[in-house]
Amino acid sequence: MTKEQLIFAYKNMLLSREFDHALINLYRQSKIVGGVYSQIGNEASSVGTAMALGEGDVIFPMHRDNGAHFVRGMTPREMAVNFLFRKGSMTRGTDGTGHFADAKRKIYGNVSHLGAMVPVAAGAALAQKLSKTGFVVLNYIGDGGASVGEVHEGLMMASTHELPLILIIENNQYAYSTPLSKQSHNPKLSDRAIGYGIPGVTVDGTDIEAVYDATAKAVQHARDGKGPSIIETLTMRMRGHAEHDAFEYVPKEMLQEWDKKDPVRKTAELLIKKGLSKIEITEIEQEAKLEIEEAIDYANGLPDPDAEEAFKNVFIA
Ligand SMILES: Cc1ncc(C[n+]2csc(CCOP(=O)(O)OP(=O)(O)O)c2C)c(N)n1
Ligand SMILES: [Mg+2]
């Protein structure tokens, strides 16, 4: 990655981290109801993968991919309005947990039912192939979600028809309270690519450059008409499944080990190696913090949605 790309990556990783801290605080004050799914530990995976796309490519983020939303140009204000489910949010205030799409930015996720998004993404990839757009489709799934049957169906279709689909398996070691060892006999999830006859690779998901490089390679493979790939990004879910979960089932030593590989800190260290000064890094950090604070204040100042919104787009017998 160039120095400019790394600065962009760092900024977007910080937006994700700061937004996370802000949502956690609001949750503790009961100002947010529903799930707050922490992104901490996943920032290099969501940002590095999304950065490998070009304009016009399609993306299906999941619940820990706020970094990808920021990379695609979603502003902190838009994100805050969505997550605080205010009037004017993309779900008209009916959801605050990231189940919004934005067609103008080619963001088509998030389908809540784990696994169900992959056949939809494969369909979007088929559309790109039939219409010869040259665009690719990037789709995320977790270590738990990757074991749902529909993922297999989507990959069967994508591999057989050589569709331009890239599946990112974000292996953060846990699916709610279930460790990977209790739901997959083979811990190397990228091995699943062998069965489909497509490339599969496992990368350090805390290393922004490793994530970006692997995704850029898979994107080129797809653009060249050679079909789908699987990339497994190894990360750690540093908090509970969502903020209601005290995650006492996760060994403390495991969290301590992974904390040494904190992706945000590692990216700052990389920037210093590339010649950025500590002052320049602090400036980027302060800018991200201020942007998020301003966005949260903005959203907090907006009214609740009108009550009749709750009756729109639902079937009432
Ligand atoms: C089919 C289905 N089953 C259960 C759920 C509830 N659920 C949402 S996220 C989640 C855990 C998913 O774990 P993983 O795929 O590893 O992703 P992570 O949350 O760790 O990022 C569960 C059980 C769901 N959304 N869809
Ligand atoms: Mg997981």
Question: Mind explaining what this structure looks like?
Answer:
This protein is of the alpha/beta class and 317 residues long. The protein is 44% helix and 10% strand. It has a single domain (3-311), classed as 3-Layer(aba) Sandwich (Rossmann fold), CATH 3.40.50.970. α8 (208-223) links the parallel β6 and β7. α1 runs antiparallel to α10, α1 crosses α11 and α4 (76-83) crosses α11. Bound molecules: thiamine diphosphate (TPP) and magnesium ion. Residues 142-144, 172, 174-175, 237 line the site of magnesium ion (MG).
Relevant terms:
alpha/beta, Rossmann fold, five-stranded parallel beta sheet, binds thiamine diphosphate, binds magnesium ion
Can you summarize this structure?
The chain is α/β, with parallel strands linked by helices.
Task: Outline the fold blueprint.
Blueprint: H1 3-28, H2 43-51, E1 58-60, H3 66-71, H4 76-83, H5 117-130, E2 137-142, H6 149-160, E3 165-171, E4 174-175, E5 178-179, H7 192-196, E6 200-204, H8 208-223, E7 229-234, H9 252-259, H10 263-273, H11 278-300
Parallel strand pairs: 1-2, 2-3, 3-7, 6-7
Antiparallel strand pairs: 4-5
Bound molecules: thiamine diphosphate (TPP) and magnesium ion.
Magnesium ion binds at residues 142-144, 172, 174-175, 237.
Q: What CATH first level would be assigned?
A: Alpha Beta
Order of helix and strand elements from N to C terminus: HHEHHHEHEEEHEHEHHH
What small molecules does this complex bind?
Answer: thiamine diphosphate, magnesium ion
Which range does the strand content fall in? 5-15%
**CATH fold description:** Rossmann fold
Strand adjacency order, main sheet:
1-2-3-7-6
Average pLDDT over all residues:
96
Main sheet record: 5 strands, parallel
Question: Could you give the distance between the termini?
Answer: 55 Å
Q: How many domains, in number, for the residues?
A: 1
Q: Return residue spans where pLDDT drops below 50 for at least 5 consecutive residues.
A: none
CATH superfamily: Thiamin diphosphate (ThDP)-binding fold, Pyr/PP domains
Helix content: 40-55%
Q: How many H/I helices?
A: 11
Strand segment count: 7
